[in-house]
Specification:
Layout: E1 5-8, E2 13-19, E3 31-39, E4 46-54, E5 58-65, E6 71-80, E7 85-94
Parallel strand pairs: 1-7
Antiparallel strand pairs: 2-5, 3-6, 4-5, 6-7
Length: 96
């Protein structure tokens, strides 16, 4: 599996997310819920803004902040309409 990587400036704020396609989801199966975890969790570190957005085949989360020179993992724990659970990560490098 290829892990998506992004470079983000400390003052930027924007959504990141994932699209699920066959063979992950099939036919009428859809994304139904998503939990977000950011690691490491630190004061002044990368944060979420608002709740995750869950659509039929995609999930996204607005992120903000982060400490220059620090790296973060954003984990998307996505549940589908038939109960499948996927745990995917995006690697964020914060650089000025």
């Amino acid at each position: 599996m290829i892990v998506p990587q992004l470079i983000k400036k400390p003052n930027e704020q924007y959504p990141i997310g994932l699209i699920y396609e066959t063979p992950d989801i099939e036919g009428s199966e859809t994304c139904s819920a998503c939990e977000i975890l950011i690691s490491p969790s630190e004061t002044g570190g990368l944060e979420v803004e608002g709740d995750p957005v869950v659509q039929s085949d995609r999930v996204s989360q607005e992120i903000k902040g982060g400490i220059d020179g620090h790296d973060y993992w954003v984990t998307f724990k996505t549940t589908t309409s038939i109960g499948n659970i996927y745990e995917d990560k995006i690697f964020i490098m914060v650089r000025e």
